[in-house]
Amino acid sequence: MQCRWSGSRLEFAVDVILNVVLENKKKFGNGGSSGMSRKKAREEARKQIGDTSLLDHISKYMNNIIVDDHIVYHAMNPSVEIMELNSIQIRVGLGHGFS
Are 42 and 59 a contacting pair, CB within 8 Å? Predict the structure, then answer.
């Protein structure tokens, strides 16, 4: 299957979105839901990447994947009934691996 973006462009977009999610987590802490909506992630990532189609593609398919030392996933926030992007940091070689 052909993709309209190069591998390096896709990887860059994944890194940008992960960093946006991690910054959100730092800002709002780990208590409760520290995920963010795909829309909000897109708005923040758009400051670095102007191609909104690329950002939409990445945020849609960025579910249950490992990026560096994080698992990025979608989760429903029941309080607002919105699907959010979130991440869990993993520690390789240290027991169960979840922090």
Answer: yes
Out of 11-15, 28-32, 71-75, pick the least confident.
28-32
Q: Give a three-class secondary structure readout of 74-92.
A: EEEECCCCEEEEEEEEECC
* Alpha carbon distance 29, 15 (integer Å): 20
Strand partners, 98: 90
**84 is in which domain, residue-wise?**
7-89
pTM: 0.80
Instruction: Answer whether residue 2 is part of any domain.
Output: no
Q: Total domain count for the chain?
A: 1
Are the beta carbons of 16 and 43 closer than 8 angstroms?
Answer: no
